[in-house]
Amino acid sequence: MKQPCISQREFAERRERLAARLPVNSMVVVPSATLQHRNSDVESPFRQDSDFYYLSGFDEPDALILISNLISKGKSVLTYTLFCQPRDPQMEVWNGYRAGPEGVLVDYLADRSFSIDEADERLPELLDGIESVYFCMGTHYQTEVRVEHWLKSMRKKRRQGVSVPSRLVELSPVLHEMRLFKSAQEIEVMRASGEISAQGHVRAMQRCRPGLMEYQLEAEIIYHFMQHGCRLPAYSSIVGGGKNACVLHYISNNKVLRDGDLVLIDAGCEVDYYAGDITRTFPVNGRFSEAQRALYELVLKAQSACLAAIKPGIPWEETHDISVSVITEGLVELGILKGNPLELIDCGAYKAFYMHRLGHWLGMDVHDVGDYKIEGEWRSLQPGMVMTVEPGIYIAPDNESVDACWRGIGIRIEDDVLITSQGCEVLTASVPKTVEEIEALMAVARQA
Ligand code: GLY
Ligand code: MN
Ligand code: MN
Asked: Of 356, 357, 379, 407, which residue is the catalytic one?
């Protein structure tokens, strides 16, 4: 199935933009992911490191990127070096084809390439004359140790004229700020991941019946993702029936879906490394009870108020505060919280029912990179950012302070939102959200 994807031209432009943001005579070092052992002779499916893929589009394990901007004849010259696994007919028979150092020159536009086996030997030579080395610290096993090792071996050659880098600098503020703002190609890819994720949720609503296991609904969603070219979900799907919806990171998905309960599904696919992230909550039997409907409509009211407010210039925190106000006032109206809403907000009483934030940046990582504060202040939303909007209400099954009719109900409604110059675009709009839309969709499916 053909999906939109990021072009090699765009990967090259990203490298150019990154190099242009760094002082001359810098080198960026980004290691790839490695295969993760699952058990015995089994590996987990490989998923490339997001930073590495963002700069290369190369999805093999055990590789290393270098991007340098050395001054030569008065001009800054960008050099893109890729270390990768060497061609090896024996290994390729078992583990799959490799591009090899020759292949990455052509297919991934590397200026020079070497076998990954040569990295530790070549790096001291390639770092000669570099002043600043940029890499993400504390993220990849042993990167710091390897860099230290390269510098140590360079220091031994100072008398031969070798010039050792004098600054080790954290790369993430620069690289992750780039990743926070999505390009036209990224937006196209994210529209696709949003739409495929949305239709996966539609399928789950259509197939839901009392008596199914939670993992059977999960299977419907994964089926849809794979049928539309998405080999893996962006994260472990949450399918929680009844009180399991109150467990925020519930992924066991192994209980029966009961007549009269709601089910909460939080699932999204990945298209060319970009995540969708949707939550819908709906009745297992297709009809909301009175209590379920009252709470659901309150969460939806909070989400709609946030979506209406989202536009360039709004501080990140303000969107969360809107959701807190709507939810707290609504919980007071329903008699679940008692007191003055402003005081209940001040003392954090709402956190017993709404204990997470409104959302997060979304991109190649489901909880994507990018700072939320700049110089101590919440940053404001800007066109090109993508975030989730996902208020929720969760009433613990053993919460004796509320009427029994509310206990064990968990509801979250989550959409993916692109900030545009005028306001926002909901990338996941095609999955029903109002009580009427959901009940109508499920009623038609039951008759079919
Ligand atoms: N699916 C993870 C989240 O919504 O944050
Ligand atoms: Mn989310
Ligand atoms: Mn989610």
From this structure: 356
